Amino acid sequence: RPFVELTGVSHTYATGGTLAVDGLDIRVNEGEFAAVVGPSGCGKSTLMKLATGLQFPQAGAVVVDGQEVRDPVKIAGMAFQAPTLLPWRTTLENLMLPLEIVEPHRSRLRRNKAEYVAKAEALLESVGLKGAGSKFPWQLSGGMQQRASLCRALIHEPKLLMLDEPFGALDAFTREELWCVIRDLHARMAGSLTVILVTHDLREAVFLADRIFCMSSRPGKIIAEREVGFPRPRD
Ligand code: ADP
Ligand code: ADP
Predict the structure, then answer these.
(1) pLDDT band at 32 (very low <50, low <70, confident <90, very high)
(2) pTM: predicted TM-score of the whole model, two decimal places
(3) Ligand 2 neighbour 13 (Cβ under 6 A)
(4) What are the boundaries of the signal sequence (predicted)?
């Protein structure tokens, strides 16, 4: 069933009057891993913001999980090009952030603390960060911080994971290692996690995604859509 649907979506930024996306039609099914590729400035980040309710289109409809998007979509986890860990919190405390937002009752947070910590540590271990929970972000390498950011995007068990160039700032070796990590994470969620990845790296899209949307700029339109038809690589 469709999980993220954009129908005839157009958006112009008031500042500069740029028509950032023009009549987007996108459908991503539940559990699918979709990638959106295209050159810088073609509207990929705008698409991401529209799909998560951080931005509202002037025309068209955005539906996520059967509901028209009117507010920021809380079922979404997000990770960006730069890891966005807070420097004065340990990795573990950074991972707690989404839980603090989803569960604002401090008493209940305290009561479930052991469970949350166990979950965070399990996630960290699954991306090869066992024991990094007590370290501060500045004590970790860029790749480790990016892994921790991914864990934080997943800790509240989002149904939708939005990745905006999350591997862009990494060296080629770390990047490919993280591709495997994210692919395994998605496979382990067995159809319950829908992912939309924005990237300008076609190889990355082909490696990770089940479905690829190609965008062109001026103005941002989908010019091609492909299901990745060949068998996915396995470990
Ligand atoms: P794209 O490759 O999709 O064109 P951009 O370079 O336009 O990405 O960046 C999108 C947004 O992210 C911009 O608002 C930009 O300021 C911000 N951004 C880009 N790179 C970084 C970075 N390394 N650290 C923090 N913010 C960044
Ligand atoms: P991409 O992520 O593919 O690099 P963006 O969605 O960031 O593309 O940008 C699409 C177009 O919209 C670009 O022309 C960009 O300059 C413009 N744009 C993006 N964000 C803003 C903004 N906050 N205000 C005004 N114009 C913007």
Answers:
(1) very high
(2) 0.83
(3) yes
(4) none
